[in-house]
Specification:
- The structure is a single chain.
- This protein is an alpha+beta fold.
- It has one domain.
- A three-stranded antiparallel beta sheet has the order 2-3-4, with helices on one face.
- A hairpin with a 5-residue loop joins strand 3 and strand 4.
- The relative contact order is 0.21.
């Protein structure tokens, strides 16, 4: 799925509640548990503003955040809710405590 960088940022930070930090030439998105530990993370290039994310990069981001490409596509398009995402992470053993 080709998606805009803007839509990916909105999904990660807004919908799925990732924390954003800017390091070097990338924006890092990290999902934290209740203890402040990083569960999953991914990076997006700050220099790519206004561009689309390729299918290859989309697959990499999906893997980094603990989802299949189709599940991340659902998150971007809206059928996958935050609580569903957290459930998937718990089922995969990636989240063992409450998420922030």
């Amino acid at each position: 799925m080709i998606v805009s960088l803007r839509a990916m940022r909105r999904t990660l930070q807004g919908k799925l509640k990732f924390s954003k930090s800017e390091k070097t030439k990338h924006e890092w998105y990290e999902l934290l548990d209740a203890n402040g530990d990083i569960i999953v993370s991914t990076a997006l290039s700050r220099g790519a503003a206004g561009r689309d994310i390729s299918n290859n990069l989309f697959s990499i981001i999906a893997r980094e955040v603990g989802l299949e490409s189709s599940q991340l596509a659902d998150a971007v398009r809206c059928p996958l809710k935050r609580r569903d995402y957290y459930r998937i992470l718990r089922e995969k053993g990636l989240a063992t405590t409450a998420l922030s």
